[in-house]
Amino acid sequence: MINPSIEFHLHHPLMKRIVDLKERDYEDKAKFEDAPVDYEDAIENYKQILDITTDICDNVISPNAESVDLEGPHLENGRMIYASKTYENLDVTRKAGLWGISMPRRYGGLNLPNTTFSMLSEVISAADAGFQNVWSLQSCIDTLYEFGSEEQREKYIPRICQGETMSMDLTEPDAGSDLQSVMLKATYSEEEGCWLLNGVKRFITNGDSDIHLVLARSEDGTKDGRGLSMFIYDKRQGGVDVRHIEHKLGIHGSPTCELTYKNAKAELCGSRKLGLIKYVMALMNGARLGIAAQSVGVEQEAYNEALAYAKERAQFGTKIIDFPAVYDMLSRMKAKLDAGRSLLYMTARYVDIYKALEDIQRDRKLTPEEKAELKKYQRMADAFTPMAKGMNSEYANQNAYDAISVHGGSGFIMEYKSQRLFRDARIFSIYEGTTQLQVVAAIRYIMNGTTLGYIKEMMESEVADSLKPLKARVAKLVEKLEAAIAYVKEAGNQDMQDFLARRLYEMTCEIIMSLLILDDATVSPELFEKSANVYVRMAEGNCNGNYEYIMNFKAEEIESFKA
Question: CA of 397: how far to CAs of 266, 300, 431, 510, 531, in Å?
Fold first, then answer.
């Protein structure tokens, strides 16, 4: 059965616009039997797919998770071998048709929007975050679809729709977050009639996949991002071996590989020199939304485990769920989950609208109104993606930590799931850009007024009478955020802005999530009113603390913080 809190987000008013754009006025209904005939039919289709996925997770992926965690992948003759139960997970998702999620039906895909894909990612992550990585990397095909040639689309997309796996090979031993330092060499061979790749990639998630998108240096004599291009490597061609599989703290089902490229044949994807500047940015934004969904899945499962344990565990003759210290912790876990999920799906909806309009633009000119709509939602997606990824990855860590606390000493015992959730969650705020890098990505939108403008627009929406006192408290936080931004701007000191950016980011995110959860609680009080009450109070405490810190900070004090 679909989680009601997930299903709620299928009925947001923006979904009608998203589905109409994605289905292009339902033109596929005459060509494909499974294509929806109208909006209601499309939503019902999404529900059915979510229901199937939930059933698979409950009956296969979740029961397999402990075995996968214990066994993990291993290396044999230069090849990565998944944990045995991972193959079972792959088989059942392939048979259920859960591949090629976002791809057009003409290639064998399901043509689902990012919002629905994110929901599926959340559900699978709650069952096994490691397997979610393997499964969700199919979204790399979006970048190939967007920037590859039609010949490449016809060659590779049907394979992904049939269940072949993908990876994005970006980082290297000396190029982690600093991707402009990538040195894997791409040389065009006239003799072979293709590009040859040579070098090493490190920390590659699902690195022995079937189809790779590879960032490589194609321009001789360059040392920055302008010399990098994107390439497609097909495992069938050979030339890439797995040198090492990392032994990680968590997400054991997701193999992290070091790869050696030796004259590996590859195809250029898109244009030369745009690999980092354009294509990796598209890849990373998609991946960050995926990590936000992965995080929400673990937030949910951590809450589920803590709640179930608290209901059963008795101390001093009382179930611990009745202890104020415990139900305070549980209520904050639930509030973070509901607010974080709302931010995730709002971000996904923004991405859906602008991506659908970009796709339509490949076939015809957009109207002036459509161009304005594309620009608006692309800007909002760019502003919201680092907030959704950063905050949810932190909340996943916090909820997993608190789940162990609710379990007490049992939470530290390996037989309980909470320890695995805690280990799995730790990477979320690191890979695909640390939380610090999400702050860097978001701060310009905070400082230039983009997010503040959105907040003020949200403040105009009506909430239920019972929630108006909470909305009034949020209004005071908005005033403080505006004052804090003005104070930092007036200081005119870049080091000071960088130092205080995390606090401005947290204030902004918590205010936005407060307003989102208030809106959700207005529509569905039975699902969200408790969380709205808890989250706004929690955000109020955090925002007030950050406000006082910022307003009492002087630029000359930075030196005292340096190690």
Answer: 38, 12, 13, 17, 19
Is the torsion defined by CA of 392, 393, 398, 400 positive or negative? Answer: positive
**What span, in angstroms and rounded, lies between the C-alpha atoms of 435 and 429?**
5
H helix and E strand count, the chain = 18, 11
**Which structure tokens are listed for 141?**
């095909």
Residue with tokens 């949020």, as numbered in its chain? 474
Show the CA angle centred on residue 264, arms to residues 262 and 266, nearest 5°: 155
C-alpha closest to that of 198 among 212, 214, 210, 209? 214
pLDDT score at 397: 98
CB 250 within 8 A of CB 400: no
**Do 121 and 132 form a contact (C-beta atoms < 8 A)?**
yes
Q: CA-CA distance, 114 to 350, in Å (whole number)?
A: 9
What pLDDT score was predicted for residue 404?
98
Helix (H) or strand (E) holding 134: helix 129-136
Structure tokens at 363: 């076939």
Task: Give every CB contact of residue 175 below 8 A, 6+ residues apart in sequence.
Answer: 181, 182, 183
Residues 6+ apart with CB under 8 A from 226: 219, 273, 277
Whether the Cβ atoms of residue 6 and residue 123 lie closer than 8 Å to each other: yes
Closest residue by Cα to residue 259 from 195, 224, 192, 209: 209
Report the DSSP beta bridge partners of residue 391: none
DSSP strand pairing (74-76 vs 79-81): antiparallel
Q: How many CB atoms lie within 10 A of CB 500?
A: 23
Report the pLDDT value the prediction gives residue 62, as an integer from 0 to 100. Answer: 98
Contact 403, 418 (CB under 8 A): yes
Q: What's the pLDDT at 138?
A: 97
pLDDT value of position 562: 87
Q: Which two tokens mark 206? A: 């699902």
Q: Give the whole-angstrom CA distance, residue 392 versus residue 386.
A: 10
Nearest to 440 by CA among 504, 518, 395: 504
Map residue 85 onto helix, strand or coil: helix
Task: Measure Cα distances from 283 to 141, 233, 292 in Å.
Answer: 9, 16, 14
Longest Cα–Cα distance in the chain? 80
Encoded tokens for 99: 């591949």
Taking the model in full, what pTM does it have?
0.97
Average pLDDT for consecutive 10-residue bins of the chain (563 residues)?
A: 96 98 95 96 98 98 98 97 98 98 98 98 98 98 97 98 98 90 97 97 97 97 94 98 98 98 98 94 92 98 98 96 98 98 98 97 96 97 98 98 98 96 98 96 97 97 98 98 98 96 98 98 98 98 98 93 86
